[in-house]
Amino acid sequence: MSISKLCIKALKRIPETIFFWMLLFSGFVTDIASQEKIFANYFDILTGSPGGSEVIGRIHLERNKDVLTSPVPGGYHFEITAQPSDLIEVKTHYDEANRIMGILSVKAGMAMPAEPCVYPLSVVLLDRDTPLNRFDVSVKVVDKTLWQTMYDRYKGFTLDNSRLYGRNKMSDAEIGKRIIEIEQNEGYFMNFPSYTTHPADYLKQKKVKGKPKRGEPTIENEWQEITNIFGGMGYAYAKSAIYGPKGDPGARLRLKRALYKGLRVYMNSVPVEGSDLLIGGKPIGNHTGDGFSLLLSHHLSGVQTPTHQWNMTDALVTPTIHLMPDLLKDIKNGDQEALDLYHANIRYFQLFFSIVERRRPIDDPDNRWGEIQDTLYSSGAWSDANLGHRLRTMLALPILWADYNRPLTYVPYWYSSFYGDKPFANFSFSPGWSP
């Protein structure tokens, strides 16, 4: 029997917008008795994809958010237990942060069906020989992937909203100067001490004493200056007559390589993990995001940016989104610099979900979000008018992840498991929502 006949007949097309919101607010697949929560909600791949092609969407564990304090056991791995034909294989992969994931791909010498269909699989997560979870996966074989649909819909918006390129349209001459600057300085822009300076030393250099006052120079303002430059370079990559898609191929390649290097160097210079920044010889915090959000608690930043996190991410949306098609191709071809930038994206954008210390309590009626544990009173964190500002980055993240099942964030206090079913079962920082 042909592979096409072994596939489930393609279902009537569900509106793409519904699929998109399913990604943002998806749950998890898990066996009731298991110890691990698995994210494996949606997968797709182009019709006719040849051997070696990766299915879009990887299998993830919720525990990946805790790898810094509770590493994934070395014996964990995935296996396929049933499929209509010997067409797809799964490989267990650990990323640069030692998060585990299962990668589905077409076996060598095989190809996906030429017509749209749904290809079912059964998968098991094992700890050495002990099964932990058994779950079913449906790979949609499609003429156009959901990722491509999301990219096509959002890329135009990145050019229509000036926040998403730092309100910075640069001349081609300016772009050329910035490319040279990156090429000659190992990815750095000149005259920005924030790249290599501890936030406390940055304040000393700027002669800021004690608790910074409004308007005094703190390090996050310089970070935003850098993001605005990248925003202008990203706009050029999308629109410039010289550096854009219809411009000079050589010039465009130079801009791409400059963005790969410059974005990675900048993103990795900003503290995100609690262990990224030491205060008195000890990590500033214990959680993902603490490296950025707890600056305020130590009077190392102003108030505005840590409480309005989109100021750190908005201007990077245009460059990162418009790089993605080339980035994914380059990663597939083994380009290490492209892969390093992909990892830097995942790391850096975690700060978007970080919350300053004074806005984390769940039982404070005077908090910005209200008394979160009283769901008759509060809808949870971010349940205010600023959600509209936050959506700009939230809509970009599934495109930047290029993985339908990777959670939007690893910041732990957004997960219900962080609270241990208190004050009620499945309670979370934003009740009813999961990353």
How many strand segments? 11
Helix content: 25-40%
Instruction: Bin the strand percentage.
Output: 5-15%
**Classification by helices and strands:** alpha+beta
Task: Give unreliable regions as ranges.
Answer: 10-33
Which geometry do the CA atoms define?
Answer: globular
Look at the structure and give the mean pLDDT.
93
Q: What is the N-to-C order of secondary-structure elements (H for helix, E for strand)?
A: HEHEEEEEEEEHHHHHHEEHHHHH
- Computed over alpha carbons, the radius of gyration is 23 Å
Question: What is the oligomer described by this structure?
Answer: single chain
Largest sheet: 5 strands, mixed
Q: What is the number of helices?
A: 13
Cα distance, first to last residue? 41 Å
SSE diagram, text form:
Elements (H helix, E strand, L loop, with lengths): L2 H4 L1 E2 L6 H9 L13 E2 L3 E4 L12 E3 L14 E7 L5 E7 L5 E7 L10 E11 L2 E13 L3 H10 L1 H4 L11 H13 L14 H7 L13 H21 L9 H21 L8 E2 L2 E2 L6 H4 L10 H4 L2 H23 L3 H13 L38 H15 L34
Parallel strand pairs: 3-9
Antiparallel strand pairs: 1-8, 2-4, 4-7, 5-8, 6-7, 8-9, 10-11
Features:
435 residues, alpha+beta, five-stranded mixed beta sheet, four-stranded antiparallel beta sheet, 13 helices, 11 strands
Characterise this structure.
There is one protein chain. α7 packs across α11, α8 crosses α12 and α11 (310-332) packs antiparallel against α12. The strands form 3 sheets. Strands 1, 3, 5, 8 and 9 form a 5-stranded mixed β-sheet that branches. A 4-stranded antiparallel β-sheet has the order 2-4-7-6, with no helix packed on it. A two-stranded antiparallel ribbon has the order 10-11. With 435 residues, it is an alpha+beta fold. It is globular and about 70 Å long. The protein is built from 13 helices and 11 strands. It has helices at 3-6, 16-24, 146-155, 157-160, 172-184, 199-205, 219-239, 249-269, 290-293, 304-307, 310-332, 336-348, 387-401; strands spanning 8-9, 38-39, 43-46, 59-61, 76-82, 88-94, 100-106, 117-127, 130-142, 278-279, 282-283.
